[in-house]
Design a protein that fits this description.
The chain is built from six helices and no strands. It is mostly helical. The radius of gyration is 14 Å and the shape is globular.
Length: 132
């Protein structure tokens, strides 16, 4: 039996994996934010920590906000400057995934999750925006 995995959702999962979202003593778990999202809104709109990272009331709220953020970036509707034609490595850098070891973990996760061994850091973001 084959299960459909949404590519944007797999991106959230992969970055959350690197950020140790399911590890109780991690920052991502504490903030309930798999992508360690930053707040760029006016003061008081979001609960943030001292580093400007958003804190969510629940795991589901953090996952939903993360999915929305990734979807915006994949569709070129983000103030980050990321476009549909950018590469996976560019998206990872926007989320603070700068170390080669962490980038490699994301790629490995995505290859397994999406059953596609051809995914690399050079994979265009429009691949992840495509519906399977």
């Amino acid at each position: 039996m084959s299960i459909h995995v949404d590519k944007a959702e797999a991106l959230v999962d992969a970055i959350g994996f690197v950020n140790q979202f399911y590890k109780p003593d991690s920052l991502a778990y504490t903030l309930r934010s798999p992508l360690l999202l930053r707040s760029f809104s006016r003061n008081g709109k979001h609960i943030i920590n001292e580093e400007g990272l958003r804190q969510f009331d629940s795991m589901l709220a953090g996952i939903h906000a993360s999915y929305f953020d990734v979807a915006c970036k994949l569709n070129g509707r983000s103030n980050s400057g990321i476009q549909k034609t950018d590469l996976l490595i560019n998206l990872l850098k926007v989320y603070g995934i700068n170390q080669e070891k962490d980038q490699t973990q994301v790629v490995s996760f995505l290859r397994k999750a999406l059953s596609n061994p051809s995914i690399t850091l050079q994979t265009p973001l429009n691949y992840f925006a495509e519906v399977q």
